[in-house]
Amino acid sequence: MKIVGVKLFHYVLPFKIPVIIQERKIQGREGFLLELKDSDGICAYGEIAPLVGRSKETLKTILQEMKGVRNFLLQTQLPTHFGSLEGKLQKLFQPCRPSWDVQFGLEMALLNMRAHQKKIPLFATFSETEKTFLPLNGLVLDTSSMKEIDSLIHQGYQTLKIKVRAQNLKQEIKNILAIQRAYGEEVILRLDANQSLTFDQAIELGKTIGPAIEYIEEPFADIERIPEFYEETLIPVALDEALGQYEISKIQSISGVEVLVVKPSTLGGLEASWQLAQQARGRGLHVVISSSFESGVGLLTLGHFALGVSRTTAAGLDTLKYFEKDLLKKTLTIMHGNLDLHSTVHTEDLNFDLLEEVQL
């Protein structure tokens, strides 16, 4: 495969309401959309959007990095067989030593290009599943949003992920208990504290709400105390922020950790995340694919990826509803809590009014 064109577009997508990420109030997402063109004129796209509080990179460092990556892409004959996610793209870009954000965008673009070339859905390049709909967990940012929860359930969501904050914890607990009473038999509940609780607060929360939830994600920062938390509450724990810090063997050894929440843009790309998911499942851990508030371009790719990892596990991709606008002209189709994955991103699908080309 020969790449003959490399373009980079800058975008800013404001949120409808501020979103708290890593205890920081974020007003929107800013990043780059990468366009690659092959010698047959086929274009494909990847998203590069460092997440404040999680990424080591900035837009400035990524722009500088992409200048070297562009030259590498234009001068290199790329392999044609890399859809199995076995590590060929990681090896290919080793000379560039790309950051995790850039690796994610490069892999996204090249895998989508391969799907376009073969005229098949993206998930079919690395999975044999015939399913084209992916279940999602409905995301709720405020435990008091009973109206929003009721709407999600009526839309057909069977799993909800609810953010929990340390501030005013007693009221948070009351709200969760009210949700359990109202909808406990209708929906699976996941909680996410983003390491915001102290250990004692997490114990108070867990003992009060009981084990009738699927899991709690990162209740506190010290993973060494997870076994003690699990013994006290019987609530399984999911890891997200800690994944980049520990080997899978260490994670498996921690009693109470049953789920890995895998965000490919923060873990070195799609290939690295695929390999992590396979290792985790081989060790008896469950895997949930989740987003880092990417645009619709990134979310659609992550949906295809999640379908390949597990076609029945509800993925954490219900974030697009918090954006005022999107890079895709048509919003992604979600029916009865399931993301429609019949489509992939083509040039005509993009809203170029929101994209500004930058010079490489």
Description:
The structure is a single chain. The chain has 360 residues and is of the alpha/beta class. It has two domains: 3-120 and 349-358, 2-Layer Sandwich (Enolase-like, domain 1), CATH 3.30.390; 133-344, Enolase-like C-terminal domain (TIM Barrel), CATH 3.20.20.120. Helices cover 32% and strands 22% of the residues. Strands 5-6-7-8-9-10-11 form a seven-stranded parallel β-sheet. Helix 6 (199-209) links the parallel strand 7 and strand 8 (215-217). The protein is globular and about 60 Å long. The mean pLDDT is 94.
Into how many domains do the coordinates divide?
2
> Which strand order spans the largest sheet, edge to edge or round the barrel?
5-6-7-8-9-10-11
Overall body shape: globular
| Tally of helical segments | 10
Indicate the low-confidence ranges by residue numbers: none
Write a brief structural summary.
This protein has 360 residues and is an alpha/beta fold.
SSE topology:
Elements (H helix, E strand, L loop, with lengths): L2 E19 L2 E15 L4 E6 L10 H17 L12 H5 L7 H19 L14 E3 L1 E4 L5 H10 L3 E5 L5 H15 L4 E5 L6 H11 L5 E3 L8 H8 L3 E3 L8 H5 L4 E6 L7 H13 L3 E4 L6 H14 L24 E2 L2 E3 L15 E3 L2
Parallel strand pairs: 5-6, 6-7, 7-8, 8-9, 9-10, 10-11
Antiparallel strand pairs: 1-2, 1-14, 2-3, 4-13, 12-13
